[in-house]
Amino acid sequence: MDFQDYPIPSGVHTIPSHLLDLRPDPEIDQDLLHPKPVTDEKNIWFFWHSGFSNMHPYTRRNVRAWHRRFSKQGWAIRVLDRLPSSPLNVANFLSISDPETFPQAFIDGTIGGDHAPQHTSDLVRWPLLLKYGGVYADVGLIQIGDLDRLWNQTVGNPASRFEILSYNAGPVEDRSLTNYFLCSSRDNPFFARCHKLFLELWAADGGKTSTEGMHASPLLKGIPLLGAKEPLSFEENGKKFGPEEVSKMLSDYITQGQVMTMVMGLIDQEDGWDGPKYVAEHLYAMDYMVGSQLINVFTEWNGLKAFELMSLPLPKRGEVESEDQRQAREIVEGCLQKSFGFKLAHGLILRVMGDTLGSLWRRHDGSDNVPGTYATWLRHGTIYWTPDEVPPTLDFQVIEPYKRGPLLRTE
């Protein structure tokens, strides 16, 4: 199927070709592997510990799509790593021996546990944004909406009140930012406090080598555990993990999210920080379900179903659309019309929820890029088209704080 055969949904328009970098993949990769110096705040940061060339093919396609979409609008896309001879080594952008930038375990290279690469990537996000500004995104995030337009309306606009872009997990009453898409100018006061608290958690007990147990830190007292509202459980190797244990595991795994929740709900008069007021005035946070999880909404978080639907071929001319094809079409159209991105889930969630679309694309190499399928229709749309509108922000109001007192002092 030629790309002209993919139908463009209503509410979506074609991006002018002069704004796209449509060179072959090897030429795009050459740019990604040889980054330009940082010149301004229009930076899109990724991290993969073993470098872009060693990423899974479907995540390389994700990153290339970011480059194709936004490089000609002045954005520099970089995938940082920890490879000793790489020009994209974190050490070329941040001081990896500075204890005010990284915890001792990062400096010593002793981060351990089941999710060491993920925790390493967590630790580079805020330092990069604080020093350089821009966007930090997970390599598993497929971008759909017009980042440049939203940036120019918010963070990149001196007249705008908005200083941070992200997704919020839950309704507007909740304070639960996702860490897979974070955007700000350099030296953002919210992220600066988040980073201080995160480092303090890593420094506990003489220095942590993983995030295990961080959910119980007195510095996070009063923050709800993740998953507590919708209890989850699973069984693994004959052992059952109940809802409370799963909530603690999730909260440790995404300690960075718990840190943001605390700082959003903190009033620290000694430091002049009013988190609830800052959130209401300066946070542009999109609803994460529609904004970045819509495939999971359509499939009720059934990763195998999502994979099977996205792997289907579109009906040929004259063929009647099947029920499965209808559902796959609605997924693609819905994402391209309504979403700002789509986050492919990996990591701990696989133990809790089972296979995801991301894990199955990883296992079945190339399945996300078969011409004529709904997966490739979606990928085509994320490069050549964009929704007519950017998603609105949730209307945050000032809430009662989770904590009153200094950020790094326990009550």
Automatic annotation (TrEMBL):
Q: Which residues form a coiled coil?
A: none
Gene source species: Hyaloscypha variabilis (strain UAMH 11265 / GT02V1 / F)
InterPro entries xrefs: AfumC-like_glycosyl_Trfase, Nucleotide-diphossugar_trans
The cross-references to SUPFAM superfamilies, in alphabetical order and at most eight, read:
Nucleotide-diphospho-sugar transferases
Q: Name one Pfam family in it.
A: Caps_synth
Spell out the protein name for this chain. Capsule polysaccharide biosynthesis protein
Signal sequence: where? none
Molecular function per GO: glycosyltransferase activity
